[in-house]
C-alpha cells in the first residue's frame, strides 16, 4: 500500500473506475449551496433599525406625532367644536375645565384647549428651526476650526469662550427688546447664542477624522480643502450632529417658552405656551389651570423629543451613551 | 499658583473688553434711542425735546466716541446713571446683588447637597427600585422648565397650604429677622436648585460607576481596605472631579437664569432689574449688569480651575 500516505485514498475501493470517480469527487467537492448571507447593511439602515426596535423612542415618536397632528389641525378642531382661538366670552371667563371647554377658559373667556393647540404650533416650529440654525452655524464653524487648526482654531476657541462667558440671557433680553419678536427672528436669536456646544463637538470629531487614512488619500489625490471637508469629513460627523440636533430642539422649545414667559418672546394675541404662562402669572391663584396646562404641554412635548433624541443617540452612536 | 492666577486675571481683561464691545454695539444698533421710544407715546414732546435729551446723554455722538467715553468712565469705577431712575447704576446693582447672590449660592448648595449623595446612592444601588425611580423622576423633571415648577410650588405651598410666603425676600417690617428671611428663601432655593441637583445626580452616578470599574479600586479592595476607606479615598474623590468641573457652567446658568426665578418668586434681584431695564432700554443698567455678570462667571471658572488643582494632585498649573 504505497499510497496509504494520503488519507483521502485510504478507504478501500471496489474498482479502478470507481476509485477514479471517488478521487474526482473528493478532490473537486460538489459546489456548496449559496451561503445564506444577508446583504451588508449600511450605517443608516442599521441605525434606523436599532431606533425602530427601541420601544421608548418609538413611543416618544408617536407622542411627538400626536402633538404635531393635533397642533396643526387646530383650526379644524376649533371649527368642529364650534370654538375660536380669539373669540372672547367675558361672561364665562376663568372657567375650570368642563365638558365644553376641556381645559377651561382664560381671563377673556377664550377656550384654553384651542389656544394651547395653537401654541403648540409655535413651540414645534421654534424647536426645529432653532435646531436648524444651530446646525447651520455650529457645523461649518466646528468643521473649519477642526480641519485647519492653528490660528483659525485659536480664534474659534476664543470666540466660543467669549460666548460662554457672556451672560447669554442678558444679551438675549437686550436683542429681543429691539428686534420685533416673530418666530423666525426669535429662532435666529436663540440659535445665535446656543451653537457653541455643537460647534465644539463638530470640531473635536473633525480633528479625529482628519487623521484618517482616507482623508490622507483624498489629499494625495489632490482634493481641495473644501471637497475634503464636505465630501469626506462632513458625512462622518453628520450622525453625531443629528443626535445633538435632537437635544437642540429641546433647547429651542425651552428657550422660546422662557423668553415668552419673561415677556420678550412671541407677542399676544398669537398664543405660545410661553406667553400663555406669562399671562397666567397674574391669575395664578384665581385660576391655577391657566398655569398648569401650558406647563404640562411643554413638559410633554419636551419629554417626547428628549426620549426620541436619546433613542437616536443610542441608535446612531452607542458609544455616546452615558 | 500665584503666577497662574495672575495670568488668568490678565487673560480675562481682553475677554471682558470684547464682551463690552459686543454688548455696547448690540444695544446701539437698535433703531430707536430709549427716549424716542418713551416719548413717542407723549404727544407733548417735540423732536427738539428728544434731541436735547439724546444730546444730554451723549447719544447723538458717533458710536466709537460713545464707547470710549463709557469705557473711560467704567475704568474710573463709574457705570453712569440710569436713564429713568437717574440713580448711579452701580448703586442700583450693588443694592440688589446680595439678593441674587443669596439665591444663587443657596441654589448651588441645594444642588450639591441633593445631587451628589443621590448620585452616589444611585450608583451603589444600581438598577435597584430607588435607582430606577430616581432616573425616571430625573427625566420627567428636566422636561419641565424649572421656573414653571416654581410657579406650581407657589400655587400649592404658598396659595393652598400657606406654608411659605408668596415671594419677596422678607416680610415688611421684619427686615432683620434671619428666620423670616430663611423662610422666604426655602422655596426659591429649592426650585432654583432642581436643575443643578439633577445634573449632579447624573454626573455623580455615571462617574461613580466608572471609577468603581478601575483597577486601583480593585487593588484597594485586594489589599484589604475597608469599604468605607475605599469609597472615600479612592472612589468618591475621583468621581467628584467632573462634578467640580461643571460648577462653572452651573454658576453661569444660575446667574443667567436669575431673571426667571426672580420673576416667579418676586425676588428683588439683578435679573429682574435687567429685565425691567431691557423693556425700557435703560442702556447703562443692562451694560453694567452684563459686565458684572460676565466678571462673576469668569471668577467662577477661575475658582473651579484652582479647586481642580487642589482636588487632583495630578493637575499642576505653572
Descriptive notes:
The complex is a heterodimer of chains A (322) and B (318). By secondary structure, chain A is mostly helical. Chain A contains 13 helices and no strands. In chain A, 42% of the residues are buried. Mean pLDDT of chain A is 81; it is low at 1-5 and 7-14. Chain B is an all-alpha fold. Chain B has 2 domains: 2-75, no CATH class; 94-311, MetI-like fold (Orthogonal Bundle), CATH 1.10.3720. In chain B, 76% of the residues lie in helices and 0% in strands. Chain B is built from 14 helices and no strands. The radius of gyration of chain B is 24 Å and the shape is globular. The termini of chain B are close together. The mean pLDDT of chain B is 84. The interface between A and B is large, with 40 and 47 residues.
Please render the helix and strand layout as text.
The complex is a heterodimer of chains A (322) and B (318).
Chain A: H1 16-27, H2 43-53, H3 55-72, H4 74-80, H5 112-148, H6 150-165, H7 168-176, H8 183-192, H9 196-209, H10 213-220, H11 225-261, H12 273-280, H13 289-316
Chain B: H1 2-28, H2 34-39, H3 47-56, H4 63-75, H5 89-124, H6 129-143, H7 146-160, H8 178-192, H9 194-212, H10 215-222, H11 227-245, H12 247-264, H13 270-280, H14 283-311
Helix pairs in contact in B: 1-14, 5-6, 5-8, 5-9, 5-12, 5-14, 6-9, 7-8, 9-11, 10-11, 11-14, 12-13, 12-14, 13-14
